[in-house]
Specification:
The chain is an all-alpha fold and 206 residues long. It folds into two domains: 44 residues, Arc Repressor Mutant, subunit A, CATH 1.10.10.60; 156 residues, Tetracycline Repressor, domain 2. Helices cover 78% and strands 0% of the residues. It has ten helices and no strands. Helix 1 packs across helix 2 and helix 7 crosses helix 8. The longest helix has 29 residues.
């Protein structure tokens, strides 16, 4: 692994364990077993490390979404696979990290906002149109409104006044909100296919 990638991987592990604000560049260097000089030869400051980690993680999510879209059997299957993907993401991340990125590192948070507008909302809109065409989603749903509503549900994970991290984990919030959304837009045919996909998933896990 190249030096820059090694730094990002090690820093991500440290940040996720302890949060962003409390970790210094000196501690990152020590964690990686390298000198501060070597670390600073790749990154000028901690903010640059955080920005690159954010960019890398968002690129992974974008690639996952594309893979899921092509692998999915139908719109419902696609959204269930997205749920699993995001559940894994939220279960593996410290909620405090998300709060600190939003509060203290606006340049990194801006990357997320751009990803939300350019990639996530496009993906949601395309899924809704696909589901309507396949007969799994209700024909009377308003795609632009439902796209933003679903995006708002994702953003609820970052509202720590509504869901304090000490009481709620982002994975739980994400799964419950997505189930509510999915059952709200599906037809009878769509609900039947939800059960079918869930049963298939349970068989694979056994």
């Amino acid at each position: 692994m190249e030096l820059r990638g090694k730094i990002l991987q090690g820093a991500y592990s440290l940040f996720n364990a302890r949060g962003l604000k409390s970790v210094t560049m000196e501690e990152v260097a020590g964690h990686l077993g390298m000198s501060k000089k070597t670390l600073y030869s790749e990154f000028r400051n901690k903010e640059e490390v955080i920005i690159d980690i954010t960019r890398l993680e968002l690129e992974k999510q974008k690639n996952f979404q594309e893979e899921i879209k092509h692998q999915s059997l139908d719109a419902v299957h696609e959204i269930l696979l997205v749920m699993e993907c995001l559940s894994d993401f939220f279960s593996g991340i410290n909620p405090q990290v998300l709060l600190e990125v939003r509060k203290y590192y606006p340049r990194a948070w801006k990357l997320f906002e751009e990803h939300k507008e350019l990639d996530m909302m496009k993906s949601i809109s395309e899924n809704l149109k696909r589901g309507i065409k396949e007969g799994f989603y209700r024909k009377d749903i308003n795609v632009p409104i439902l796209t933003r509503l679903r995006m708002g549900e994702v953003m609820v994970n970052f509202d720590h006044t509504l869901f304090p991290p000490r009481d709620f984990h982002p994975k739980q919030i994400h799964e419950e909100s997505l189930k509510l959304f999915l059952y709200g837009i599906t037809t009878v045919k769509g609900r039947n296919i939800i059960t079918k996909h869930q049963n298939r998933s349970l068989k694979k896990k056994k």
